[in-house]
What does this fold into?
Amino acid sequence: MSIPALIATFAVMAVFDGIWLTLVARDFYRSNLGHLIADSTNWAPAIAFYIIYTVGAWFFATQPGVDDGSALTAAWRGAAFGFVAYATYDLTNHATMRGWPTIVTIVDMAWGTFLTAAVAGIAAFIVLTFFAG
It folds into this structure.
């Protein structure tokens, strides 16, 4: 277990998803899911999600990439983990919720795939560059 890899995964995730949610996609989600969005964030489940998801990305992607000595391995594994995780969420919502837009499913799954690939790849690169050896 690499503490630097876990910390790097958390840090990169916070930056990337923070930018996505506050600057890029906020209006997209509001315009497509406004009828479902709460007036305020329920922070306990939000924090729980980020802890669980980031530990998962570290365990299934970043750390295997570090162990392999390859940021590319981390990125590919991150893409696979992100695709499966976001597909689980979005396709379940699409199948069970009235008014869940197809465009949200497509965009969110693409974002989850890219996000987790980038997070794991960059975190592994950071660890391999600055902490390996």
Q: What stands out?
A: The helical segments are 3-24, 26-33, 43-68, 71-96, 102-130. The CA atoms of residues 36 and 98 lie 10 Å apart.
